C-alpha cells in the first residue's frame, strides 16, 4: 500500500479492533499468516476496504502481520471470546455431521449411538450491544468455511438490522460462502442486486417479509406472524432439500426479545414463536445471567440453553448512529456501496467485490395514484391491545391492512419507504382471504419522492425500471431522503 500506512504484527489469538468516523475509510492488507474478520478469512496481499462508520476486528488464530491506513480509533486486544465461539462451532459441526450421517444411513461409531441426529437450529438472544449479530456471523462463516459444502440458513429476525433488505424487513437466506464485513450498510453480506454484472462473490437470495418498523413493540402480532411465515417457508424448503436441512440454521434476534420490552408477555410470545417456527434446539444467551436463568427455566427441559461470553470489542451504538446506519442501508439498496478508498489505495475490494461492480443506478418514475395499491398494516399509532381500557374494542386491528389514499393530506407517503409485495401465487378469487397481504413476501422497495395531488401522480425511486400497475405496496414508519 502506498500513502500513509503502518504494519502491525498480531500475536496468536489476538485481534486488531477499529472504529471509523463518518466519512472515514480504512484499508487493511494481510502480509503474513492468517487472519479473519468475524469469521471470514482475508486473502493475503489484497487491500480490504471498510467504511460508513464500520466497527470491526481482524482476528488471528496463529498470528499474522497486517498493514493498514490510519483509522480514528484502533487498538489490539488479547482478550477475545473466540475460543468459546470456536468450541460452539465444533459442537454444531458434530451435530451437522451426525444429521448427514443419519440421512445417508452411514455407519455410526459405537460412542455416538445415543446422540441425537438433529442439526443445529440456534436462536441467539441477548441485550442491546451484546454482539448477537456478530456471533451469528462468526458461526455461519465457520460453518461455510468447514469445507463440507454446508449452506446454513441465516434468519434476521431483528427489524432494525436491515440484513440484506431495507431496515424493517425480516428475512432468511441460505449462506454459501463467508459473509464479508465492510460496512454497516450491508451488515450480513451482499444480496443479489439490480446491477447488470452478476456479483462475483456472495450474492445472496433472501426471502423477506415487511414488518416496516424498527421497534418490535410497534406491532408484535405482525412480527409474530412474519416469524411463523418464514418458519413455514423453511419447512417447505426442508421437505424437498433433505441434505440442506442438515446444515441447520441460526437466528439473529432484536435486543427487545431479551429485555426492556413494554410487555413481558409480548417478549415471551415472540421468543416462543421463534422456538416453534424454526424448531430451535439450542438457545445461545450472549452475556446475560438473568436471561439465561429465565430461558433455562422456560426451555431448559427440552432444549439446550447456553450462556456465552460477550466480546469486549462490541461497540455501544447509540440511537443517532443507528439512524445513520438505516440511511446507509437504504442508500446502499438504491445506489450500491460507495466507499472512497483512503489516499494511496487504488485497487481494493469492498465486501469481496471490486469497487466499480457495486454501483447501482436506480430509476425515478412518475406513476398515477391508481397504479399502485398502498396499504398500512394496523392504524398509524397503535397502543397494544393490553393498553386499551378494559372493555374497549379496537376499531382497526393490529393486522388489518388499511388502504392509504395518496391524495389525503397527512397520508405520510412523501419520502416513505414502501415494500412492493410479490403477487399472490393463487389468483383464484375463491382462495383469496382478508389478511393475505400479510403473508406475501417482498419483491423490492421504493421511495415516494414527490406527490402531485392536483394531477394525481407521484414520483417514485425504484431499483430498476418497470411497471407498478396493479402492484401492492405497504408503508411502514421508515422515511428516506437522499
Ligand atoms: N470484537 C469486536 N471488535 C470491534 N467491533 C466489534 C466487535 N464485535 C462486535 N463489534 C461491533 O460492535 C457493534 C455491535 O455489534 P452487534 O451488531 O453484533 O451487536 P448486537 O447485539 O447484534 O446489536 P443490537 O443491539 O443492534 O441487537 C457492531 O458495529 C459490530 O461490528
From TrEMBL:
A Pfam family assignment: CLP1_P
One MF term in the entry's GO annotations: ATP binding
Residues the record lists as binding ATP: 15, 55, 129-134
Domain Clp1 C-terminal per the UniProt entry, residue ranges: 360-482
Keywords: ATP-binding, mRNA processing, Nucleotide-binding, Nucleus
Domain Clp1 N-terminal: 9-99
Domain called Clp1 P-loop: residue spans: 126-336
Cellular component annotations (GO), alphabetically ordered: mRNA cleavage factor complex
Compartment(s): Nucleus
GO biological process terms on file: mRNA 3'-end processing; tRNA splicing, via endonucleolytic cleavage and ligation
InterPro entries listed in its UniProt record: Clp1, Clp1/Grc3, Clp1_C, Clp1_C_sf, Clp1_N, Clp1_N_sf, CLP1_P, P-loop_NTPase
Family: Belongs to the Clp1 family. Clp1 subfamily.
Subunit structure: Component of a pre-mRNA cleavage factor complex. Interacts directly with PCF11.
General function of this protein: Required for endonucleolytic cleavage during polyadenylation-dependent pre-mRNA 3'-end formation.
Protein name: Polynucleotide 5'-hydroxyl-kinase GRC3
Gene behind this protein: CLP1
